[in-house]
């Protein structure tokens, strides 16, 4: 283990133990500092995101910087309320007693972020950890090196550099960090590494939050009006290729439509793609050669290649794959069994739209289920009969923006929820505190035991005050 | 045997997939059935607890039967509210939309319970799991065999067997169960096995609740009502399964000057409660088995310890009984101050100032409960602010776990996750965010081609600017 690493983490622990991260003013100052960082360093942020994934700066603002600004503003407005202890009800028999739940920081937390939203997935959990009063070590993904470097330079410049640190590096550094003891680990990434993280955490009984992905389906009902079709297709296109060219855990993975509607949909999709992506710069590129090759391989299968209805162009030198639509690739091919995480959109046709429920249920639980429909019965069935991290009707991605909604997976898509107050709760311990006085004392609590004491307790426990008093006074047998 | 276990889990999963456990009526019926079981079979339950732990009847009633019943009644009263979706405020950036949070069951959950409150620690999590609409497999502790076989016998007579099952056994059965894929694992027990449970859960990325223990400290100030405090400490320690409870006082910290008075008060109270020959008292549980009996007696026989015993120390190997024992000023590095005692031994550690106790507590891992006896409000505030523990109680012992409005669980080594009351329901639920948008209110600024004007509108939307919202709503900029 690198000695430097252990002492770095030790410094964060020292900062936490000093107690300074617990004050409201510290937490607020860190949040304001983050806000300043986002505003003052915006140009460098855009540059880093462009370098790492070819993200256009408007997309970068829409999906990363803007979202973070919103989250911090929300947190600043709410944090005092979140930190306040909550009084709870106490039964009369315990008078005078008060009980409350006091949120306290867990201590020192470790955050692993992912390469596709390298800024947002680093700072959104960081916001939560700071709001809750913890010390933080952040390990950004090495697959987004420009953003990682940006964070390593700027976090110490703006924030409390002893209590919030950035550690750069790859799998080896990650391994070393996992050997240390943490009070919580927050991981965003792929399933395999998620398992490694949780297994390492088990050695210290460290609680974890694991945010992974899955195949997010979009169920598209057959719309008849031009307006409905336009809005739907634009939102679908925006929900697939808008976020990092489909390399997003909440991006639409594949579509489910009735077979009659499919040709109409394909044409509309093609037209909208042409309308939106008038230049290559409006679609992020593929992050690296490894993922480019992975995505190319998905298209290699003969039947899959034959199902391409649009696109398919690949430029290995620029790591660019154009928006690609496929119609009914075989369900047992990798493109339909693994999370795509790229700009390929399979469309699967069904006899009737209600069959989509069974289709989705037969597969691992995704992070989101999207459905575009006016049919209230179908909507109700989707909510009640399927299971997913969340459900969004008639739009895509946008649920990510609502601070009031918990964001996280279930089953194969992970566990642990954050955003808004959920972030605060995720990084807090809820300590129950009960205060009693010496004033009232019930002798029947104490041994030696007898039947009379037992009976008094029976009455007390069922809050049967009348019988209790009568029995106590000897007026009831 | 692994195949048998797999078959049981397979059956329960099919039961869940059938959709039956999601119906409100099913959940209510199961909890009612469990409540009925507790009422009708109380005698057998008390007998099993006596066989397993020589648990006094009043303790069986107070701490197991009655609490299990309260858990059922509270769930039945509140279930209608718990299952209702929670409406949520939308925001300007997603207008127009409605949002709510729907609680849904996780699926098939595994509950592994402990031997010290074998009845309660099985029923309580099951009630939560069932209230949330899950199917459950219960693995009761094999160290409480009478209660374990009682469950295996009577639970099937009351609940829906296709969705709620009991699997008895020890390490091999537990290992086989842990290899299966679960939607949640709820474990009550010790840190060593908890690590095994979590590592097994990691293979499937299964979330866990771990209810563990630790060394729950009791800080005793001199500014108190000593008589009342002594009674509460004694009943909280030895009246809870003879100290074999996760939230039982593990050790006391008090000032050097106050220690003699405290010791005297404790001695007097102990004699009043349990008589001059506590080994003969019917009001004390026995030690659960020979293993633990040995573990505890070796703590006492350790060199440098035996002369620190100021009260008690008697034992009856045949009856597996150890008398309430007080120790004063044992050496700081003795084993009795290191690991959780989980027995009727109570060491008293002395300090110069009562505030010095904080450092002692912080030098150990975070406990499940921390107690303070004082009338000094300032000391109380410092304690709550500086000491981290699962839960805290001022001027009494253990009572906090009976309040269904308080989350019960640990932090750090004492565990993760919490339950009781609605927290049980939440522990076994997935909170699914459901967002429903309309087809109006299209913010063209969302879509490429990305122009500077669009960026300005997006910025305005993020800042909550009403002008931006209007521009966005009315579809500016026009393409």
Automatic annotation (TrEMBL), chain A:
Domain Aldehyde dehydrogenase: 12-433
Active-site residue list: 211, 249
SUPFAM superfamilies: ALDH-like
Cited Pfam families: Aldedh
Keywords for this protein: NAD, Oxidoreductase
Keyword Oxidoreductase in record: yes
Signal peptide (from-to): none
GO MF annotations in UniProt: aldehyde dehydrogenase (NAD+) activity
GO cellular component terms, semicolon-separated: cytoplasm
GO BP annotations, alphabetical order: aldehyde metabolic process; response to abscisic acid
Membership in a protein family: Belongs to the aldehyde dehydrogenase family.
Protein name in the entry: Aldehyde dehydrogenase
Name of the encoding gene: LOC109713902
TrEMBL record, chain B:
GO terms under biological process: aldehyde metabolic process; response to abscisic acid
The Aldehyde dehydrogenase domain, residue ranges: 2-434
Keyword NAD: yes
Catalytic activity: an aldehyde + NAD(+) + H2O = a carboxylate + NADH + 2 H(+)
TM region positions: none
Pfam family, any one: Aldedh
Gene Ontology terms: cellular component: cytoplasm
Molecular function GO labels: aldehyde dehydrogenase (NAD+) activity
InterPro entries per the UniProt record, alphabetical: Ald_DH/histidinol_DH, Ald_DH_C, Ald_DH_CS_GLU, Ald_DH_N, Aldehyde_DH_dom, Aldehyde_DH_NAD(P)
Residues annotated as the enzyme's active site: 211, 246
UniProt keyword list: NAD, Oxidoreductase
Gene3D superfamilies: Aldehyde Dehydrogenase, Chain A, domain 1, Aldehyde Dehydrogenase, Chain A, domain 2
PANTHER family noted in UniProt: ALDEHYDE DEHYDROGENASE, ALDEHYDE DEHYDROGENASE TYPE III, ISOFORM Q
Family: Belongs to the aldehyde dehydrogenase family.
Full protein name: Aldehyde dehydrogenase
């Amino acid at each position: 283990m690198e000695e430097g690493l252990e002492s770095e983490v030790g410094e964060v622990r020292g900062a936490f133990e000093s107690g300074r991260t617990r004050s409201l003013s510290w937490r607020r100052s860190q949040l304001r500092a983050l806000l300043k960082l986002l505003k003052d360093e915006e140009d460098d942020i855009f540059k880093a995101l462009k370098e790492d994934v070819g993200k256009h700066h408007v997309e970068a603002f829409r999906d990363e910087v803007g979202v973070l600004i919103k989250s911090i503003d929300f947190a600043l407005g709410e944090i005092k309320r979140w930190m306040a202890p909550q009084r709870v009800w106490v039964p009369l028999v315990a008078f005078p007693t008060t009980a409350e739940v006091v949120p306290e920081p867990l201590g020192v937390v470790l955050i692993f972020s992912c390469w596709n939203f390298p800024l947002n997935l680093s700072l959104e959990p960081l916001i939560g950890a700071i709001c809750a009063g913890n010390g933080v070590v952040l390990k950004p993904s090495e697959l987004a090196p420009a953003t990682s470097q940006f964070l390593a330079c700027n976090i110490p410049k703006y924030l409390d550099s002893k209590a919030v640190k950035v550690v750069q590096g790859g799998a080896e550094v990650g391994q070393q960090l996992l050997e240390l003891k943490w009070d919580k680990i927050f991981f965003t990434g792929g399933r395999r590494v998620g398992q490694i993280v949780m297994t390492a955490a088990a050695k210290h009984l460290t609680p974890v939050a694991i945010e992974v992905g899955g195949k997010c389906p979009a169920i598209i009902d057959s719309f008849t009006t031009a307006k409905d079709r336009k809005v739907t297709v634009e939102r679908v296109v925006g929900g697939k290729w808008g976020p990092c060219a489909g390399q997003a855990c909440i991006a639409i993975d594949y579509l489910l439509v009735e077979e009659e509607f499919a040709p109409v949909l394909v044409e509309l999709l093609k037209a909208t793609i042409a309308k939106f992506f008038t230049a290559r710069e409006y679609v992020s590129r593929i992050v690296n050669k490894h993922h480019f090759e992975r995505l190319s391989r998905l298209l290699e299968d003969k039947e899959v290649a034959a199902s391409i209805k649009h696109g398919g162009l690949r430029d290995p030198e620029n790591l660019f794959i154009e928006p690609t639509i496929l119609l009914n690739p075989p369900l047992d091919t990798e493109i339909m069994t693994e999370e795509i995480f790229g700009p390929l959109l399979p469309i699967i046709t069904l006899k009737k739209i209600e069959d989509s429920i069974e289709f989705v249920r037969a597969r691992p639980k995704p992070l989101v289920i999207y459905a575009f429909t006016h049919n209230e019965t179908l909507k109700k069935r989707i909510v009640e009969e399927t299971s997913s991290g969340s459900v969004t009707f008639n739009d895509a991605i946008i649920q990510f923006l609502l601070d009031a909604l918990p964001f996280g997976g279930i089953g194969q898509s992970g566990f642990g929820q954050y955003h808004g107050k959920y972030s605060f709760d995720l990084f807090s311990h809820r300590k129950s505190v009960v205060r009693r006085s010496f004033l009232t004392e019930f002798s029947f609590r104490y041994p030696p035991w007898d039947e009379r004491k037992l009976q008094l307790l029976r009455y007390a426990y069922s809050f049967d005050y009348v019988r209790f008093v009568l029995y106590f006074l000897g007026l009831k047998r | 045997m692994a195949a048998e276990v797999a078959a049981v889990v397979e059956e329960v999963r099919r039961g869940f997939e059938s959709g039956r456990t999601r119906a409100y009526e099913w959940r209510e019926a199961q909890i009612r059935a469990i409540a009925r079981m507790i009422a009708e079979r109380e005698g057998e339950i008390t007998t099993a607890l006596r066989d397993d732990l020589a648990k006094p009847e009043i303790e069986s009633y107070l701490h197991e039967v009655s609490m299990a019943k309260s858990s059922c009644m509270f769930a039945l009263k509140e279930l209608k509210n718990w299952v209702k979706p929670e409406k949520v405020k939308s925001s300007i950036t997603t207008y127009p939309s409605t949002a709510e949070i729907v609680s849904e069951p996780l699926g098939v959950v595994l509950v592994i319970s402990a031997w010290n409150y074998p009845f309660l620690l099985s029923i309580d999590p099951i009630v939560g799991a069932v209230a949330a609409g899950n199917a459950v497999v219960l693995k009761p502790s094999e160290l409480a065999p009478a209660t374990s076989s009682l469950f295996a016998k009577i639970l099937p007579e009351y609940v829906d067997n296709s969705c709620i099952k009991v699997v008895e056994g020890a390490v091999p059965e537990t290992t086989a169960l842990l290899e299966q894929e679960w939607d949640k694992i709820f474990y009550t027990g010790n840190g060593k096995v908890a690590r095994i449970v979590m590592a097994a859960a990691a293979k499937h990325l299964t979330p866990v609740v771990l209810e563990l223990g630790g060394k729950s400290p009791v800080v005793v100030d001199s500014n108190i009502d000593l008589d009342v405090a002594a009674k509460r400490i004694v009943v909280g320690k030895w009246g809870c399964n003879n100290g074999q409870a996760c939230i039982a006082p593990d050790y006391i910290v008090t000032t050097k000057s106050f220690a003699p008075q405290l010791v005297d008060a404790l001695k007097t109270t102990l004699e009043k409660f349990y008589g001059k020959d506590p080994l003969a008292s019917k009001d004390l549980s026995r030690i659960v088995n020979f293993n633990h009996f040995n573990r505890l007696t070796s703590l006492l026989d350790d060199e440098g310890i035996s002369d620190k015993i100021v009260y008690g120390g008697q034992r009856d190997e045949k009856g597996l009984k150890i008398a309430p024992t007080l120790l004063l000023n044992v050496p700081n590095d003795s084993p009795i101050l290191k690991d959780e005692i989980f027995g009727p031994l109570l060491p008293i550690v002395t300090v110069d100032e009562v505030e010095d106790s904080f450092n002692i507590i912080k030098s150990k891992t975070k406990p499940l409960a921390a107690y303070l006896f004082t009338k000094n409000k300032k000391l109380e505030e410092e304690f709550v602010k500086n000491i981290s523990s699962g839960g805290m109680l001022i001027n009494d012992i253990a009572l906090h776990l009976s309040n269904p409005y308080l989350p019960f669980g640990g932090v750090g080594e004492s565990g993760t996750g919490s339950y009781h009351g609605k927290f049980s329901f939440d522990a076994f639920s997935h909170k699914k965010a459901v967002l429903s948008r309309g087809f109006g209110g299209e913010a063209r600024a969302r879509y490429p081609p990305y122009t500077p004007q669009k960026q300005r509108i997006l910025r305005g939307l993020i800042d909550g600017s009403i002008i931006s919202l209007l521009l966005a709503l009315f579809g500016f900029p026009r393409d």
